[in-house]
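Reading a protein record of the kind used here takes only a little practice. The integers have meaning only within a learned vocabulary of local backbone shapes. With that in mind, consider the following protein and its fold in token form:
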Amino acid sequence: MALSFLLAACSLILLAGQVPYSERDMTDFDTVFNALKGKGTWTVGENDSIAFFTPNEAAKDPNWRPMQTGRWIYTDWGWMLRSDEPGAWATLHYGYWTRKGHDHWVWVPGGDWQIHTVDWRATDKYIGWRPVKLDRMGNFITGSEADNVDPLDWSFIPIEKFGLDMSPKDFLSVEETAKILPLSAPASHIIKIWDNVERPGPDPVLIYKKNKTQFLTVELKTLPSISTPPPYDSPVEYFLYRPTFFQDFDGMIHRVKILLSKEDTSTLAKPQVQEIEKKIWQDNGLKPRHP
């Protein structure tokens, strides 16, 4: 009995010392701004209605598209695009990608973490997805059917390559996509959890049969900070940073504006920079971060 009690006590002590990897960090939007520094440019829209980020690749190449590198993995939340690109933890899970009103793709930040923000379509040979715009509450805005079949929005890949490491050369051209889209249908699948649940995206069992890999559902774990490395590698666990932000949608726009003003006034003394920041916050009816 004494030995059993001692072992139980030791187990509790060991568990107490472990990092749970379930608590989400809270941070300023500055964390995203800094993660993307040097990777592109920020723009604040007219009347401060929106802020968006243009990657350097998108500015240089009009044919560049987001979500064409990395690998789709099936998680306990559904399909997720795993990418090691800097800032992908933000640009693939918060806000949305759009090219509407632009001659290239831009990323619009948001405050709600999503497993993905895409629509899915499929044929018997190809899987395709396109970024979907979100409203301020993080809800999908799907638009009309005509809006959903623009080949410039879609990325189609052969089924046998889906779920494996991808690069832009694996995808159909715009001309090929235009031919495939009318033959495709919305893609979803049923998975048994407590009950049958419909999830967006292709059936993972079918995918893993096609690409001849073992079907594994990956459990997502939360890193406590952006500087915390994954504690170990595992084929059935994936550690990622997914914080909550102090700012809402409007607050993110204000932070981008403030951070851009600091970059534009880097030659000014610190009190002058703080005065600019204070004025921006006051103009928007918010409490300044500096007294």
User: Anything to note?
Assistant: Residues 249-264 form the longest helix (16 residues). The mean pLDDT is 84. The chain has two domains: 20-246, 247-291. Residues 20-246 form one domain.
